[in-house]
Amino acid sequence: MTLEKAITYTIDHEGIDVISEPRFVNYLNDLQALSTPAIKRIISTMVNDGYLGKVLPYLKTTGNGYEIQIVDLRSRLVTNEGFQEDLVKYVLDCFLYSVHKTGNAPEAPSIPTPSSSNPRKKKSEKSEIKVVEANGNYLVTLDGKSYELDHTQYKAILRKKNMPSERLMLWLEAYSDEK
User: Fold this and answer.
1) How far apart are CA 11 and CA 33, in angstroms?
2) With the CA atoms of 96, 51, 152 and 83 taken in that order, what torsion angle do they form, in degrees rounded to the nearest 10?
3) Measured between alpha carbons, how far is 133 from 106 in angstroms, rounded to an integer?
């Protein structure tokens, strides 16, 4: 079942409030609507971290006040959580379609297939992060490059430590550019 059909089915049978409950992910999983682990992770994060609970009142109304909230939610999921923008857009479009905020059926983004010309690191080649703390700041070293972070940035990096090293390095560079 497609994601938007599964969301519609769940809302029709359980009411719209179900989208902010942890069992919502189980419904979608049972309906085999979570086509990729990334989509499952996005929806789980939206439910478990309360993102859908904050947007729910706007989805229940008949006005257009939801638009700003959806744009803000998309931005937060991409910026704060590190999800791919096209996947987040697809998931949110499925929600909007399912609650009749848009008549355009969402299209699932194409998932690129790995090419032999761009081999990815094997899991066994995971990079090691080294950290030195001094005076409330942290010197983080990854793959031979060092980045100076404050306490808040360091805590954010700790939540992302299981990311592939290439993505983690992008986060570290972004944080070090803020200084």
Assistant:
1) 14
2) -40
3) 47
User: In this structure, what token pair is assigned to residue 92?
Assistant: 């949110």
**Cα distance from N-terminal residue to C-terminal residue, the chain:** 47
| Cα 171 from Cα 154, distance rounded (Å) | 11
Buried b (16+ CB within 10 A) or exposed e, 148-174: ebeeebbeebeeeeeeebeebbebbee
What tokens were used for 167? 């993505």
* 91, 43 contact by CB (below 8 A): yes
For 24, counting Cβ atoms within 10 Å of its Cβ (0-12 exposed, 13-18 middle, 19+ buried), the class is: buried
Predicted confidence band of residue 9 (pLDDT cuts 50, 70, 90): very high
Phi, psi of 100 (to 5 degrees): 65, 35
30-59 pLDDT per residue, tens: 998 887 888 899 999 988 888 888 887 777
Residue 62: other Cβ atoms inside 10 A: 8
| Contacts of the segment 120-127: beta carbons below 8 A, 24+ positions apart | 120/164, 121/164, 121/165, 121/166, 126/165, 127/165, 127/168
Q: How far is the C-alpha of 31 from the C-alpha of 26, rounded, in Å?
A: 8
Crossing angle for the helix pair 37-48 and 85-98, nearest 10 degrees? 70
